[in-house]
């Protein structure tokens, strides 16, 4: 079985670095510039990305992630039952729309009030119903 790791040509990588000039991202202009380089590499498609471009992509992705985590801190996650209520309200639905998913009127009521946890099966059904990721409903 052959190795999946491709070796990086240091000279090619050096030329690529000189062209891209990656550095710590400190403002939105540098952020947008890094994202543009990332996008241009990704547009080539997986089989066409050279090992050197892959290394640059990894470097830039880490720089962008670091900048975004400093600049756009994550909001605290909502509790799953609060998210269900929000999605239901935003979609113009009513509690009764969840009866087939959750099982009964009383179970839906308990779920929406936070008295009943959401099971994994219910989380999967809710994700399909609301067209969102299942992880939103799992604590």
What's the Cα radius of gyration?
23 Å
Into how many domains do the coordinates divide? Answer: 2
User: Segments where pLDDT lies below 50 for 5+ residues?
Assistant: none
Give the distance, in angstroms, between the N- and C-terminal Cα atoms: 41 Å
| Helical percentage | 55-70%
Say how many strands there are: 0
Spell out the helices and strands N to C.
HHHHHHH
Mean pLDDT equals 89
Shape: elongated
The profile of the biggest β sheet is: none
Summary of the model, kept short:
The chain is mainly α and 139 residues long. Helix content is 59%, strand content 0%.
Helix-strand layout with pairing:
Layout (H helix, E strand, L loop, with lengths): L9 H11 L7 H15 L8 H21 L8 H11 L8 H4 L2 H9 L6 H11 L9
Helix pairs in contact: 1-3, 2-3
Describe what you observe in this structure.
The chain is elongated and about 65 Å long. It is built from 7 helices and no strands. α1 packs parallel to α3 (51-71) and α2 (28-42) packs antiparallel against α3 (51-71). It is an all-alpha fold. The protein has helices spanning 10-20, 28-42, 51-71, 80-90, 99-102, 105-113, 120-130. The chain folds into 2 domains: 10-71, no CATH class; 80-137, 434 Repressor (Amino-terminal Domain). The mean pLDDT is 89.
